[in-house]
Design goal:
The complex is a heterodimer.
Chain A: E1 5-10, H1 13-16, E2 36-42, E3 45-51, H2 53-57, H3 66-72, E4 77-80, H4 83-97, E5 104-106, E6 120-125, H5 141-158, E7 164-168, H6 171-180, E8 185-187, H7 193-198, H8 209-217, H9 223-228, H10 231-238, H11 240-249, E9 267-276, H12 279-299, E10 302-313, E11 318-329, H13 332-340, E12 352-364, H14 375-394, E13 399-404, E14 414-417, E15 444-456, E16 463-468, E17 471-484, E18 501-508, E19 513-519, E20 529-535
Parallel strand pairs in A: 2-4, 7-8
Antiparallel strand pairs in A: 1-6, 1-7, 2-3, 5-6, 9-12, 10-11, 10-12, 13-14, 15-16, 15-20, 16-17, 17-18, 18-19, 19-20
Helix pairs in contact in A: 10-11, 12-13, 13-14
Chain B: H1 9-28, H2 30-35, E1 38-39, H3 44-49, E2 54-55, E3 59-63, H4 74-88, E4 97-102, E5 111-112, H5 114-120, E6 127-131, H6 135-147, E7 151-157, H7 164-181, E8 184-189, E9 202-208, E10 218-226, E11 232-239, E12 244-247
The chains are: A alpha+beta, B alpha/beta.
Chain lengths: ~525, ~270
């Protein structure tokens, strides 16, 4: 099947979106026909940066000083140009367009990127997407495309945009037709590109003004005239760019489109005849789309690592929630549970008319089969899912496992890791334990050792008593010292401050046991300071 | 069930009691049979008192001695010891994993330390830790864990029990979740007050006891409440190398005489 592209041209884009208020409602529709310009300060002069169609009809051109334009049209509406805002709005619109197809590209040759007024364009690859708009009784491509186009025009209209659409086999052809012919919706049937393009001016190919002018000088004004010319002289006279543009318009050369999403994405959508807003409805729809997504994952032997639900609000806003899993997953229930935790923050506004479930990251088959594996594997998966659920609510940092590290420094001897250790990782069973005489390690370790006031009989003795967090402890038994020297071979600068530590396991009269250390070498006459680093059970 | 070496009269009573429990469980239905499962603590007298061991698939409350924060590790050590026993027993799930809901700060004398847990006999590999800022999140995490059939147990470091209905409801939920899944729950609490919601299966109070300098910890353990059972008190030594409880010999602690460097302020706060 041939690829089909829809080009969506909004001549007054920069003006249309500005008429929408903060809530997304279109305001001041009555102003439609009023000439308006956007201005930009250029070398100290307010200059017209964009004009709407009404202003263009009255002869105001981009680049004119504002004062001239004001003189021509006294009631001209003037706004300062803001290309960044234009771009942001266009990207929002592109996201909105994903209701039709996942593959939407912003046309970066149009304003607000190039200087041709306040227009904007989007290219949608609608190959294989139109059947969603199949009406009863109709099954041919043209009717379906027409239905999609009409739906799109009407929906854009509700959003306050007046647009012109064209559907063709090549993106550049669709663009040319949409921008350079008058009907609101033009369908170029498959394989009829030459005919459709022929009547259009050569400028429709997106050529540089210089090339257009050069062609004009030799009387080549319509694309049909170019199509009749032999290629080689055209190329030598007007540059290879012209031939390339022709080829791309005819679909004979591929056009690179900066699509927002990769091809064949794992996506499932559901549209609602009546917008929904109730929590139960949203949850029901989420289950339904996730179910469909997971069935497809199942079919294609893939599993999702990150999924997203998008809710298209009737006012054009797109809400989204996403969740990640640490193992590739294709169980709709699990994904639903992860996502539903975030539903509280969804504001359906006046309703949601479409919903989309999509996989953002995923893995092929491996590891997904576990669902059919042993009970032990199922238990492991259940625990992994639990970890995901906890991490999705409490934060990724909140969930961790402990992994041993080969270091004799207590605080370095373990690290937090996000998931299960890999096959080659050091584990608690294969790590070299501390020497048996040093096996005593506290059940809890302070991240930062706390200073204590301690008194020892002799400088190199264990403490006889100490004071920690406002309470005094008398030492009944002490074992040690276990001397731990800084790991001087490491580059870490924090070691510079660390001196040798002598650790003692001390027990008070009631049996409470603590891990204390003396910082500094007593035999070198360094002033000892004492720290509590952990508590024993 | 007690080790054959220790089998004495109490051991036989324990066997009988556990048999009765099993019969009761079978009468109540097949699923109930597993829920009525118990795991032995490897200490004949204790197992006997408990009717064959501590019940799995229930929530047990372990209370430390300090008022608002725990300043020694007895409660954690005792919890770890119970987990070692649970994982060694056939009632533990095959995956045998544990969720440990820890506190955020240094409040409880630091964070759980892998090497310390390993020394006690608990393989840190099997523990999934989750840190939550507040009590609500910890309780939520614990409940999620108790509903997850893949786990063997969930441990939560909590603050003092909330008095009144709110606390009772919270614990009741945990208990129901544990019963439904067969996952055991352990609530670790400081002794802020005598408040007990009574919803947990049992309530234990753990304090450090003099060990005479041995590496194996000794605890004075008192069972303050046990559903359908009696209270009791024991001095227990946790033999780290073979992973079972032993009767602790009495150590009389006599601190060495120390020349007073400055007047002792006493230990009022920690008492």
């Amino acid at each position: 099947m041939a690829r089909r592209f829809l080009y969506l041209y909004i001549p007054d884009f920069s003006f249309d979106w500005r008429r929408r208020d903060a809530a997304g409602n279109t305001v001041a529709v009555a102003d439609d026909a009023r000439p308006a310009v956007l201005t930009r300060r250029l070398v100290g002069t307010e200059t017209v940066a964009a004009v709407n169609q009404a202003a263009a009809l009255q002869g105001i051109a981009v680049g004119r000083p504002l004062a001239d334009a004001r003189a021509m049209i006294p009631d001209l509406s003037v706004t300062e140009a803001d290309p960044a805002a234009d771009r942001k709005q266009l990207e929002r619109l592109a996201a909105w367009c994903q209701r039709y197809t996942p593959m939407v590209a912003v046309d970066s040759t149009a304003a607000p990127f190039a200087g041709d007024g306040g227009s904007a364009g989007l290219t949608l690859d609608i190959t294989g997407c139109v059947h969603l708009f199949r009406r009863q009784g109709a099954a041919d491509l043209a009717t379906e495309e027409q239905a999609l186009g009409r739906d799109c025009l009407a929906a854009l209209n509700r959003l306050g945009f007046s647009a012109r659409l064209a559907v063709a086999d090549a993106p550049l052809a669709a663009r040319a037709v949409a921008r350079f012919s008058a009907p609101l919706l033009t369908l170029v049937p498959e394989g009829r590109l030459r005919l459709a393009l022929g009547a259009l001016p050569v400028a429709a190919l997106g050529l540089s003004p210089a090339t257009v002018e050069a062609l004009d000088r030799v009387g080549l004004r319509r694309i049909a005239q170019l199509l009749d010319q032999p290629r080689a002289p055209l190329a030598s006279r007007f540059g290879v760019g012209l031939i390339e543009a022709l080829d791309r318009a005819l679909g004979e050369r591929a056009t690179a489109l900066d699509m927002k999403l990769p091809e064949e994405p794992f996506q499932e959508r559901i549209a609602f005849a009546e917008p929904i807003a109730l929590r139960e409805d949203l949850e029901g729809a989420a289950r339904q789309t996730l179910g469909a997504l997971c069935r497809r994952l199942e079919r294609e032997q893939a599993g999702a690592r990150r999924v997203r639900l998008r809710f298209f609000r009737v006012d054009g806003e797109v809400l989204q929630v996403s969740a990640g899993t640490s193992r590739a997953c294709r169980e709709a229930d699990t994904l639903f549970r992860l996502l539903v935790q975030h539903f509280d923050k969804l504001d359906p506004g006046f309703g949601i008319d479409m919903m989309l479930a999509e996989m953002l990251e995923g893995d092929r088959a491996e590891g997904v089969q576990a669902a059919l594996g042993s009970t032990e594997m199922r238990d492991r998966d259940a625990v992994t899912d639990l970890g995901d659920r906890l991490a999705n609510r409490l934060g990724v940092d909140a969930v961790h496992r402990l992994q041993p590290v080969e270091s004799h420094l207590p605080e370095r001897a373990e690290k937090r890791s996000a998931g299960r250790p890999g096959r080659k990782a050091l584990t608690w069973t294969n790590v070299r334990p501390p020497a048996p005489e040093r096996a005593a390690r506290p059940v809890r370790l302070m991240r930062r050792p706390e200073p204590v006031e301690a008194t020892a009989l002799l400088p190199d003795h264990p403490p006889a008593r100490f004071r920690w967090r406002g309470a005094d402890y008398r030492v009944a038994h002490a074992a040690g010292p276990e001397r731990l020297a800084p790991e001087w071979w490491r580059d870490g600068s924090d070691d510079a401050s660390m001196s040798t530590r002598d650790y003692f396991r001390v027990e008070d009269g009631d049996g409470r046991r603590f891990w204390l250390y003396r910082d500094g070498l007593a035999e070198r006459g360094e002033a000892p300071s004492w720290f509590l680093h952990g508590i024993f059970s | 069930m007690g080790d054959p070496k220790h089998r004495d009269e109490t051991g036989q009573r324990a066997d009988l009691a556990s048999l009765r429990a099993r019969v009761r469980a079978i009468e109540r239905g097949g699923a109930e049979a597993e829920r009525g499962a118990r795991f032995s603590l490897g200490h004949a007298a204790l197992d006997g008192h408990l009717g064959g061991g501590l019940s799995a698939g229930r929530v047990h409350e372990l209370v430390g001695e300090a008022r608002s924060e725990l300043r020694d590790g007895s409660v954690f050590g005792f919890a770890a010891a119970l987990l070692v026993r649970l994982l060694a027993s056939p009632v533990a799930r095959r995956g045998g994993e544990i969720l440990w809901c820890a506190r955020e700060a240094n409040m409880f004398g630091g964070a759980p330390y892998g090497w310390g847990l390993k020394a006690l006999g608990l393989d840190p590999e099997r523990v999934l830790f989750v840190r939550a800022r507040d009590e609500t999140d910890r309780l939520w995490a614990m409940e999620e864990g108790l509903r997850c059939g893949g786990l063997a147990a969930v441990v939560a470091e909590l603050g003092p029990a909330r008095p009144g209905e709110a606390g009772r409801v919270a614990e009741r939920r945990l208990q129901l979740a544990a019963e439904a899944s067969g996952v055991s729950g352990f609530l670790l609490r400081p002794l802020a007050s005598t408040v007990t919601t009574g919803a947990a299966e049992s309530r234990w109070r753990i304090a450090a006891a003099p060990s005479g300098g041995s590496l194996d910890p000794v605890w004075s353990v008192s069972l303050e409440r046990l559903r359908g059972g009696r209270s009791g008190a024991w001095q227990l030594l946790w033999a780290m190398s073979d992973g079972r409880f032993r009767e602790a010999e009495e150590f009389v602690s006599v601190p060495e005489e120390v020349p007073e460097a400055r007047p002792a302020a006493g230990r009022s706060a920690a008492a």
